[in-house]
Amino acid sequence: MPYKKDSNRCEVLLYNNVDTDLQDMLRPLNFIQTIYLSPKYTIKDGYITPNSLFCNILSAAGAIVFFSICVYRILTASKIGTFEGFSTTLLITKYFDAILFSLGFVANAYVSIRLSHLNVLLYLKLQAIKTFVPCKKIMQKVKYYNDQKLFLKTVQRLNKANISKLDVYGLFIVDATLPLRLIQVIATYTIVLLQFAFQ
After folding, report:
1. What is the pTM of this model?
2. Where does the sequence pass through the membrane (predicted)?
3. Which residues of the chain have pLDDT under 70?
4. What does the chain look like in DSSP terms, one character per residue?
């Protein structure tokens, strides 16, 4: 794949065009990421490219601002008035939240700045997978026997494939059930806090 070197930044030249369906899917995601000051890629004129220097500076500035807000929350957490039985629990929770938020902002900025080219390659691979899957019009043109034979070969190939789950630093597995598990933890945490509040 040919690359253009431009002030310590690699840009894919030939293979980074994105069809309109994928653009329609990626633009809202990119818009939300830009609002949070951490865009992962740039889509312009049908091409997806890694972040520019301006976007990298924007991500770094956003991480610094959010990190400063979290440090301010940590420093002022003990000054906020609390209820009699909750002072220790609320302080620990505030510290824990502020530390995790600050780590999240720093990690997000790192991914936006250092790994922007990998984000682009990920979306290009998604597009390649999307175009690999045959559409209904092509399948209708194939005879019934060939259709069954192709289907059986695909099933056999998929059975041989080793599909591993995405593991994030050995802490948790990213799959479709992650939001459900996250909601379960938040609901349990909320119920425990409410039980302590009404005692």
Report:
1. 0.52
2. 53-75, 95-113
3. 1-14, 77-87, 130-150, 152, 155-156, 158-164
4. --EEE-SS-EEE-SS-B--HHHHHHHHHHHHHHHHTT----EEETTEEE---HHHHHHHHHHHHHHHHHHHHHHHHGGGS---TTTHHHHHHHHHHHHHHHHHHHHHHHHHHHHSHHHHHHHHHHHHHHHHHSPPHHHHHHS-HHHHHHHHHHHHHHHHHS----EEETTTEEESTTHHHHHHHHHHHHHHHHHHHHT-
Digit-coded pLDDT (tens) for 107-159: 888 888 888 888 888 888 888 776 665 555 554 554 455 556 667 677 667 66
- Compute CA distances 74 → 86, 87, 92, 102, whole Å: 17, 14, 10, 11
Q: Where are the domains of the chain?
A: 1-133
Cα distance between residue 31 and residue 113, in whole Å: 17
Are 43 and 20 contacting, i.e. CB atoms less than 8 angstroms apart? Answer: no
- The C-alpha atoms of residue 168 and residue 102 are separated, in whole angstroms, by 18
